[in-house]
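Hey, why these numbers?
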Amino acid sequence: MNGDVRFTVTRTLTKDQQARRERLIDSARELALEGGYPAVTMHDVADRAGVARATVYRYFATKDHLLTEVAAAWAHRVTSDIARPVTGGTPLERLGELLERIVHVAAEEITLTSAIIQAVTSDDSSVDDARSVLFLFLRERLSAAIGDPIPERDDVEVVISHVLLAALISVASLRRPVDEVAAMVRTSGRLVLAGALASARPPEPAC
């Protein structure tokens, strides 16, 4: 499977093929939860999913590609109840709540977080498409949390996405205390968003 069709192919899979692909992702996630990045091998994923070992490569080019898809599934799960904070509060409060939630879940599943961070930040070219889709999804979730129209929205989403990645690396790789990282990411999100909102205000008249 070449890089041009790796992501779009999921839309043309049969029901059985889609189920098999999801089973492989679930198996990789379970292995990563149990033993982190080293525990995930294409052979072990295939064995746990109950498929032929060559089958894994029909859906995922490399281990890092597979784990980046695991990261996407993880991101969907963590942000699945995003509608709740969006219904109330200010944009700053909603964004802060989402960012802190992601950090706390990441800390609770530290071996999984470490594995997917290693894959997502890999220089493996097979990860490129999956990583781009993952970051676009996270930007959509951040946008939903912010809710209200803001100036320079694209730049705000990109900056906060990078702040969030740095926070996850701090938790998973640097093993910083989760409360410290959660406070950092909330403060960073608040400063970035507050700066964007402030730039939309008309200048005060000169005395």
